[in-house]
């Protein structure tokens, strides 16, 4: 067994996937934009902290559940990893399809799955609520993360390094969305930029899915 806490190849692939997932507009990033517009940049950054605290809760749950799964059902874990690779590939195909169809982006003022920004409530509480119930976060921990765990290494150290990467990238991405706000929203309204962004995301995700399968 290697002395390293993670498989270097799997971790580098994970970092690539996380870059794409962190910058892709979703409930969390759209909430950051909406909070910045409605409450100002300071409140938006507080909301970012709230969302990442919820992510830590998800990682704590994953440390308990995934650790037990790896030890008890290594074959089942392998099947979950394959399912995760297929999910990442599906995300890539979806991004490419959206780029080809050049679909209109979601209105950042009214994100489909995000908690509405309320004037009288704490941005931290709203941010925590957005991420704890975020479908993207749920899918990440049930489908995307498992393929990157090495069953021959202790789970806890691996999750710690994955958490460090996720929190770091999400903090930077969400903060950028919060601070850029309307400017980024207007940029995504441009068909040419939106098409290029979708093609870039799709190719990276499909490449990551192939790398995951090759490492299984």
Main sheet overview: none
- Fraction in beta strands: under 5%
* Category by helix and strand content: mainly alpha
What is the helix fraction of residues, given as a range? over 70%
Q: What is the rounded Rg?
A: 18 Å
By DSSP, the count of extended strands is 0
Report the uncertain regions. Answer: 104-117
* Number of H/I helices: 9
Q: Which term fits the overall shape?
A: globular
Order of helices and strands: HHHHHHHHH
Distance between the termini: 17 Å
**What's the mean pLDDT score?**
76
**What's the structural domain tally?**
1
Spell out the blueprint of helices and strands.
Elements: H1 8-23, H2 27-39, H3 41-72, H4 74-101, H5 123-132, H6 135-144, H7 155-180, H8 182-188, H9 191-215
């Amino acid at each position: 067994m290697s002395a390293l806490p993670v498989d270097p190849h799997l971790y580098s692939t994970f970092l690539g996937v996380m870059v794409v997932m962190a910058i892709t507009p979703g409930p969390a990033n759209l909430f950051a934009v909406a909070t910045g517009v409605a409450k100002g940049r300071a409140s938006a950054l507080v909301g970012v902290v709230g969302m990442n605290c919820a992510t830590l809760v998800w990682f704590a749950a994953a440390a308990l559940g995934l650790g037990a799964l790896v030890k008890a059902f290594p074959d089942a874990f392998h099947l979950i990893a394959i399912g995760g690779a297929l999910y990442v590939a599906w995300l890539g195909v979806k991004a490419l399809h959206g780029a080809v169809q050049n679909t209109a982006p979601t209105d950042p003022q009214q994100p489909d799955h995000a908690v509405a920004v309320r004037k009288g409530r704490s941005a931290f509480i709203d941010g925590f609520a957005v991420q704890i119930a975020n479908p993207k976060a749920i899918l990440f921990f049930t489908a995307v993360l498992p393929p990157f765990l090495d069953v021959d290494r202790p789970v806890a150290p691996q999750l710690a390094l994955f958490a460090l990467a996720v929190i770091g990238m999400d903090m930077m991405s969400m903060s950028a969305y919060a601070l850029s706000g309307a400017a980024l929203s207007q940029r995504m309204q441009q068909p040419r930029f939106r098409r290029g962004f979708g093609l870039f995301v799709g190719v990276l995700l499909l490449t990551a899915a192939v790398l995951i399968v090759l490492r299984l």
